[in-house]
Design goal:
Elements: E1 8-12, E2 18-23, E3 28-34, H1 41-78, H2 88-104
Antiparallel strand pairs: 1-2, 2-3
């Protein structure tokens, strides 16, 4: 079985207990991340921002993964002589910049 293809996003479940992660063109359900721990007191309450940040991090990592792998494969190909020495620097820069842009995307 394959994972959900396409861009993943943060959604809401209708209450404050969970954040839902959806993905793909049709925003298919991927999973829930528990944000609000029931009966956990002040310590659990203080962990809510970190849990929400973790959910956003999961989405960010998934969305940047394919671009990062493609950048690594492309730069590996540069070392195999598929580009001339005059264009390697610019090509590496473009590949790396594209991967960084996708990885740092905050959406």
């Amino acid at each position: 079985m394959e994972h959900t293809k396409g861009k993943w996003e943060i959604g809401r479940t209708g209450d404050d207990a969970d954040i839902m992660i959806v993905g793909g063109k049709n925003r298919n359900y991927v999973c829930n991340v528990r944000i609000n721990q029931i009966g956990g007191g002040a310590i659990a309450e203080s962990m809510k921002p970190e849990r929400e940040a973790n959910a956003r991090r999961i989405v960010k990592c998934v969305n940047g993964y394919d671009e990062l792998i493609e950048a690594l494969k492309s730069t590996r190909m540069l070392n195999l002589g598929l580009y001339t020495s005059e264009t390697i620097g610019q090509k590496v820069f473009e590949i790396v910049e594209k991967a960084i842009k996708e990885a740092e995307n905050e959406e």
